[in-house]
Write a structure and sequence with these properties.
single chain, six-stranded mixed sheet, ATP-dependent protein folding chaperone, binds magnesium ion, Substrate Binding Domain Of DNAk, Chain A, domain 1, 16 helices, globular, binds adenosine-5'-diphosphate, ATP-binding, nucleotide-binding, alpha+beta
Length: 624
């Protein structure tokens, strides 16, 4: 079987899959014929639904329909951002060992899933969408994520890939891959600075690149992983909950189903307001048989979200500052992500760049197409048109160690080119705290003066409390220590840290690879579970196939016997079959097949008498 490499844009709200095919990046439509798939997973009494099927049934099954999972992946349960999004979700998140788990009822039983498992289900759906279209196997994928993902989030995505039985060959920031699409579509020989602004469902990501023919050099990235279309929806929901309370003195938040219906209508209203200046919302029987009819203008929508829109400008300022590029030096500004369609956002960006024209490439598909280009380049060197494209990427967050006074000293600073290897020399903190200004000091261990604790952190704050501890290890030191700490970060965000007291020699060197994802055992268990769910799904597909075969066979016969006399026995058998499958929606594959066999046995003597072998021929005979 032919193997294909694809690009998957894994979004908070929608995911999209693309493949490099016939010299271009093609978007692959899903089984509903849609080019983007909602990032939704639902658990029902009989099966797991993913994508459109899951989103379509949310108001009937709000507690077991999971969405927005990219806002949770790689975060601890108590993380403030995770906590603040959870309160709007109709499904339950519980804590186990500080990690969040999604609790659902599946086939009548309580089940807990890690965010990695839910994401793996989304990845499998995208993989299957591609496989169905390509008729081959998909193993290698490039995945795009928001720019501000940290190392634990990258690791969590890699773990999700393992559970989905996929090889994630690279994880790239979504605006960066969108820039590849843009660059390829607008080829010129001139070097240009391109700013890509990606405002999606839950995140706002910005990249600035210098594109020089086939070289895409990322200068800086910035973002806000807590800002996107869903937040604008939440503002509308809050507004209407208050209006409802004022008008009817009733609390909509008490009813999850009503909230879900309101959410869908708010999203629809928001989208409509990108095209028209006012919208009517009409929801029949929203709560206690009350019909909720209300209108909303574009101005009101903008007013409700003003501060959020304003904060979407901040990553733009930051990325320019970090890249040391002035506004006027930006040659092109490119918008992607569904929420970049909001007119006010477009106006604010254009104003910020003194009225500059904005380039709108397909906001839903650009990132996936760029990821497909990367997947093609990394998996084969036979694709003439993209073979020479070179993407030079950067890290989005600083990595460093704790030094004296509980501050972080960065070793690999944010926006450093990847891969990166950096070393720094440290001394041991002497009694006098004020001598600290001269060089970098590490505290000795309080219990053991002949060793130091190297603590590795990620983050931009100078105090440790606000950053994430990635790992730590102890290093033996001499009486006159001179400690060299080396960080090595590869293209796949694997961080290796080593430390050595130079006065003691290399043999005392200590090394760790930072591992912060799931343990090997956990992954093994989840891989087995995922296989079980896939087998169950396969069984359901076969069952539906058997039911469908049986139903159509019965109805064909039914049409036939209407045309002939003396067919009472067959007619009764057909009626019995119809009643049976109407009363047995959830029968097993074998049962459908068995019932079909029984019906065939009744029909076959008649067929024999008429000397025919196939029911469709029976129709021809009867027609004569
Ligand atoms: P993600 O990559 O985070 O999944 P997308 O880029 O697919 O997100 O964008 C999805 C978001 O864009 C949703 O919040 C959706 O409501 C919003 N969106 C899509 N079309 C429009 C539109 N015409 N006007 C306003 N918002 C839109
Ligand atoms: Mg996106």
């Amino acid at each position: 079987m032919i193997e294909y490499a694809v690009g998957i844009d894994l979004g908070t709200s929608y995911s999209c899959v693309s493949v490099w095919h016939n010299d271009r990046a093609e978007i692959i439509a899903n089984d509903y014929g849609y080019r983007i798939t909602p990032s939704y997973v639902a658990f029902t009494n009989s099966e797991i639904l993913i994508g459109d099927a899951a989103k379509n049934q949310i108001s009937l099954n709000p507690h077991n329909t999971v969405f927005d999972i990219c806002r949770l992946i790689g975060r601890s349960f108590h993380n403030l951002e995770a906590q603040s999004v959870m309160k709007y979700w109709p499904f339950t998140v519980i804590e186990k060992n500080e990690k969040p788990y999604i609790r659902v009822t599946y086939k009548g039983e309580k089940k807990d899933f890690t965010p990695e498992e839910i994401v793996s289900m989304l990845l499998v759906k995208m993989k299957e969408t591609a496989e169905y279209y390509l008729g081959g196997e998909v193993r290698n994928v490039v995945i795009t994520v928001p720019t501000y993902f940290n190392i634990s989030q990258y690791q969590a995505i890699k773990d999700a890939g393992l559970i989905a039985d996929l090889d994630i060959i690279r994880i790239v920031n979504s605006p960066t891959t969108a820039a590849i699409t843009y660059g390829l579509n607008t080829k010129t020989n001139k070097e240009r600075n391109v700013l890509v602004f990606d405002l999606g469902g839950g995140t706002c990501s910005v990249s600035i690149l210098t594109i020089d023919d086939e070289i895409f050099e990322v200068k800086a990235v910035a973002g806000n992983n807590h800002l996107g279309g869903e937040d604008f929806d939440d503002r509308l929901i809050n507004h209407f909950v208050q209006e409802f309370r004022k008008k009817f003195n009733k609390d909509l938040t008490s009813d999850k189903r009503a909230l879900c219906r309101l959410r869908n209508n708010c999203e629809y209203a928001k989208r409509s307001l990108s095209a028209s200046i006012s919208v009517n919302i009409e929801i029949d029987c929203l709560l206690d048989y009350i019909d909720f009819y209300i209108s909303l203008t574009r101005g009101e929508f903008e007013e409700l979200n003003q501060d959020l829109f304003q904060s979407a400008m901040k990553p733009i300022e930051k990325v320019l500052r970090d890249a040391k590029i002035e506004k006027y030096q930006v040659h092109e500004i490119c918008l992607v992500g569904g929420s970049s369609r909001i007119p006010k956002i477009q106006k604010m960006i254009s104003n910020y760049f003194n009225g500059k024209e904005l380039k709108l490439i397909n906001p839903d598909e650009a990132s996936a197409r760029g990821a497909a280009v990367q997947a093609a380049i990394l998996s084969s060197d036979t694709f003439e048109k993209v073979r020479n494209i070179l993407l030079l990427d950067v890290t989005s967050l600083s990595l460093g160690i704790e030094t004296s006074g509980s501050v972080i000293t960065p070793i690999i600073k944010r926006n450093t080119k990847l891969p990166s290897k950096k070393a720094e020399i440290f001394k041991i903190f002497a009694k006098n705290l004020f001598s600290f200004t001269e060089s970098l000091y590490i505290d000795t261990n309080p219990e053991n003066k002949s060793s130091v604790l190297i603590q590795v952190y990620e983050g931009e704050r100078s105090k440790i409390g606000n950053n994430k501890l990635l790992g730590k290890f102890e290093l033996t030191i001499s009486s006159v220590p001179q400690i060299e700490v080396t960080f090595k970060l590869d293209l796949n965000y694997i961080l290796k840290v080593s430390a050595v007291d130079k006065s003691m020699g290399k043999s005392h060197k200590k090394k760790i690879i930072i591992t912060i994802g799931l343990s090997k055992e956990e992954i093994k268990f989840m891989v087995a579970e995922a296989k079980k769910y896939r087998a169950e799904k396969e069984k359901i597909v076969q069952k539906m196939q058997a039911r469908n075969d049986f139903e159509s066979y019965t109805y064909i016969l039914c049409n036939l016997v209407r045309c002939v006399d003396n067919m009472d026995k067959v007619y009764d058998a057909i009626q019995e079959s119809i009643t049976w499958f109407n009363n047995n929606e959830e029968a097993e594959k074998d049962e459908y097949e068995h019932k079909q066999k029984l019906l065939k046995e009744i029909v076959s003597p008649i067929m024999k008498k008429l000397n025919i072998t196939d029911e469709t021929l029976l129709f021809d005979v009867l027609a004569i």
